Predict the 3D structure of the following.
Amino acid sequence: MNGPKEELRTVVERLNPQTRCLLTRMKAGDAYLPSQLQELLGQGTKARAVGSVGWLIANGLAEETGEEDSKRYVSLADKGQAFQEKGIPEGRIVKLLKEKDKLTIQELGEKLALPKEELNPILGTMKKEKVISFESGGRVALGEEVAIRKATERYGKVNNLLDRVKSETRVDLHDMPEDEEEIIKEMSRKRGKGKAIFRIVRAVEMRYKLTPRGKEAQAICGDIREGEEIGSLTPEILEKGLWRNRTFRKYDIGTRPPKWTYGKKHPYGLFLDFVRRKLVAMGFEEMRGRMVETEFWNNDALFMPQDHPAREIHDVYFVKEPKYSQELPEDLVEKVAKTHETGWKTGSTGWGYKFDKERTSRFVLRSQGTANSVRMLASQPKIPGKYFAIARCFRYDQVDATHASDFNQIEGIVLSREMNFRHLLGLLKLFALEIAGSSEVRFVPSYFPFTEPSVEIQFKHKELGWMELGGAGIFRKEVTIPLGIEVPVIAWGLGLDRMAMVALSLDDIRDLFTSDLGKVQEMKFKQNI
Amino acid sequence: MPTIEIRKTDFDKFLKPIIEEQGRGREETLSRIKGEIKGEDNDCYKIEIADTNRPDLFTVEGIARELLGIFKEEKFKDDFLNESPKYKIEVLESVREVRPFVGALVVRNLTVDEDTLHSLISIQEKLGETLGKRRKRVAIGVYEAGSIEFPVRYGAFDPQSYKFVPLEFSEEMTLDEVLRKHPKGIEYGHLLKGCQGYPLLLDANRRVLSLPPIVNSREMGEVRPGANHLFVEATGTDQKAVILALNIISSALSLRGGTIERCETVYPYATPLGENQVTPRQMNKALRVDMEELKQLLGIDISRQEAADCLRRLGYEIQGQGEKFQALAPYYRSDGMHEHDIIEDIAIVKGYENFSPLPLSDFTIGGLSREQEIVDKVREILVGMGFQEIISNALVNRRELSQRMRCETEAIEVDNVMTETYSVLRSWLIPCLLKVERESSQVEYPHKVFEVGEVVVKENGPREEIRLAVLISSGEFGFTDIHRILESLMEELSYPYHLKEACHSSFIEGRFGEIESGHKSVGIIGEVHPEVLSNWAVKMPVSAFELRIYPY
C-alpha cells in the first residue's frame, strides 16, 4: 500500500459486486432516494440498496445529502387490528339491526363483544348521523333510510381500507384517492386516545449522492473487469481449475460477524467439575447417595438427637408418601438407638432419651451431604481412604437471593489409622490453597452435632475479604463405633455456593439453576476467583 | 442456630473490656465461644451462637463468664450451691400428669435496671424457646419476691377454679379465659390442650403467681426496674432441663452481682432425681480424661498440668492425679457426653491458631464414580453436537410434572410444603427443559438444550435414576431430527436400542415412541403435543427425548 491511488483501489476491490455496481451506476451530482437506488440496481429490496450505499458511505465514497424527504404512511392502530377481521362495529350494528329489528344496548354489547365505554360513543355518533334511533326501554332501532345508505357505503370503504392496509402493512398516504385519504385522516384521530383505527406515521427518508472520492473510485471500477474476480470459491471452480489466472475479490476482514451458534457445558457444571477434578487429584474417591433419605442416615446415624432443632418440620422437608422405609439394617439401627440412649460401647453417656425407631425410618429429603459419608462408613470403606460427594440437598427455607430450595453440598471423609486434629487443619489448608487459591487462612471453633472437635475454615479473598470455605471435624465416636469404624475419621464439608457465585459473577443464588437460556449462555466460569 | 440480642450498654459493660484487652478484635474474641455478630440495631447486637448444646452461652453474662475464664483465668463464686435451701415449693399430686416438674431460686442484692431487665427477659424467652422447646419442656417465670408468702404451692386446678389478672391486662380472667384471650394463651395454650386441670403456682396465701407455661399474674409477677429481690421458677416436663435452666439463670444473675438463695422442691411422687430437689444444683458426673487419648486426638504434647489448667479456666473441677483424671463440668453446662467433648474444650482454650497444620501422609488413589463417568461422557457428546447444558432445580411444582404435561405423573411429594413452586421432586426431566423454553423465547432459535441429572421415580418406594433429556425447538425441527440425535448418541455410547410405537398424552400420537434396550423400556422420544406447548406458553414446536443412563 503506497499512495492514495492504491488505497482507493483496495477499497474498491473489497466492495461486493452489488455495492460496486451501485457505485458505477450512481451519477455524480444526483441525489437519490432509497427507492431510486433500488431502481438503479434493478434487483433486490430497498433495504439491500440502503445496505450497499451504507458500505459506500463507510468508505467515504458516498454521503447523505441532508435533503430530507418526508412521507406519510398509514398503518393499522390497535383497534384497526382488532376490527380488521369482522369489520368496524358501526357496520355490524346496522347489519344486526336489519336482522333483529330492535336490540337493547346490552344485547348489542354482548353480540359485538364490546365494553360499554367503547360502544356508547359509537352509538352516540350514529344517532347524531341519524343512522339509528333510541326507543323506549333502552332499545336501539334503525334510523332514516338515506342516512343509513350513505353511512353503509362509508363503512364499506373503511372495511376495504382495513383489508388493504393490513395486507400491505404500510401504505403511502399520497398514493390514495382523496376520499379515502379523508376517511383515514378522520379515523386516525376520532374515538379518543388508544381507540383510533388507523395510524399515520411520518417517515423521513434520506437522499444519497457520490462524494468526489466516490467519483474517483468510479473511474477505478472501470479498470476492474467484472466477472473476472472470484467471489466465493466453489467446488466447480476447484474442479475445473477456473481459479487459475484470476484474482480473488478481497474481503474486509475487520467487520464483526454474527456469532456462530455453539453448545457448551453449564458454567456451574464446569465449576463443579473443577472442584471434582481437584478432589480427585488430592486422592479422593467419589461416592453417591440419594436425594430421598431416611432420618436414620440423614440424622440418627450422625448422632443428632431426635429432638434436635435442625430436624424439625421447619428445617427439613418430609416425604408425604411413602412415609417410612422398609429397608433399614436392623442391627445397625439397634446399635445407633443404644448409642443415643446410653452411649452403648462408645464411651459416651448418650443423650439419655428413648429412641423412636419408627421416626428413624421416616423418609425426608436429604438435608446434608454427610448422609452419604455415613452410608460409606457403613459399607466397608478402605482404610486409609478418602471419599467425597457432591450432593443435592434440601432445606426448608424461604427462597431468596441467598437461599435456594435445593443446593449442592460438597463433603467427604478421610479415614486413617494415624490422624489427629492437626491433620484436619492441614487438609483444610490444602483445600483453601487448591480450591480457593488462597494461602491465607484462619481456623475458628465451630459446632456440628456429629464432630468433636469441630472447626470452621475461612480464607482471605483478594477483593471480598474473609470468606467461609467450609466446616469440618473429627467424627464423634458415637458416630463411628456403631458403624464398625475404629479409626479416626475426618468429616469435612465445603460451602461452595458463595464461591460458585463469585466464580460465575452472579449475585442471586437462584441463577445457578436458572431456566433462562440467555442467562446460561452469557454465564462464564472464571477459574481464578 | 440461636441468635441472642444483647443491649449495647451491656455489651460495653461486660464484653468490650475483654475484647479491648485482648486486642484480637470482636470477631476473633467471640469465635472462642462459637459466636458471631450477625447484625445490630440502635440498642442491641444480634449474636449467633453455633453450639445449640450450650444454652449457658445464650446470655451476655454467660458469654462474659466464658471469655473472662479463658483469657483472664477469673473464677466465679458458686458457693451458693453448697448452702441449705431457704425456701420451699410444695408440689401437689394433681400436676403429675400435666407438667410434673418445678424448681426455683431467689436472688437478693441485685438492683434491676433497664439492662438487667432486658437481659432477664431475654434469658427467660431464649431458654424457653431453645432448651425449653418453645416452653413445652421448660418455661421460666420471674417475680418480685417481696410480696410472696412461702411455701409456694404448685398444682393443677380446674380451669374455672381460679381467677387472676394476667400481665398486660387489667381485668380478672378465669384460667380458661386466659387461654382463649391472652396473646400468650393463644400462642402457648396448645401445651395444655386436653388437660383436666391447668398448672398454677400459688403462694401460701393462695394468691396466683402464674399459670405456667402461659403467663404470670400482673399483681404478683410483674418485675419493674428498681426491684432488688427476685423469685425465679421453672416448670416443665423434663426435670433435668428444668434444673439446668435454673442453673444457667443463677450463674448469670450471680455474675451480675446478685446473691443466689436456693429453694427446695418437695414432690409427693418419685422423680427421676429422687423426691426432694434443691435448686440450683450440680447435676453433672465427672468424665474421665486420658492424657494419652488427649495427646493423640490433638496431635500435641501437653502436660497434665496444662490440660487441667485449661479446663479450670472453663469452670471444670479436676479430680484425681496422674495421667488419667476426672473432669467435672460446671453446673451450668450439660453438653459433655464424651471424653472428646472435654478435649475440644482444651483445644479451644489453647486457641486453634496455636495448632500447626500437618499434611495428610496416607497415599490414596482418587477417582470419579462410575455414575459421574457416564454423565461426563454423555455431556461431552451432547456439547459436541452443539447442545447447551442446563442445570435445574430438583424440587419443582407438582403442576409442572402433570397438568402442564397433559398427563398424570406419580412423584415424591413433600409433606410440609412451604410453597407450591417447590413441592415435589422431579420424576422426569423434560418438564424442566420445557420450563427453559417457556422462559427463553427471546433467545434466537433454534434452541438445542439438554440436562443430565437425578430424578426420583415413585414405585412402591422412591427410586432414584440418572436421566438425560434432550430438547430441540425451532420452526424446522421435528421427530426425524430428534431421532437422528438419539441415533448418534446411542451409536457413540454403544448402547443398542430400538423404538417401539406407543402412546403418551404429552406427545403427538403417531410421533412418539418408547426407547427400548433389550426388552426393557429405557426412555421416551417424540414431538411434544401442541396443548402441552400451549400450557407452557411455548410458541415454537418442540421435540424431545428422555433416556435413563444410570442404572442401565
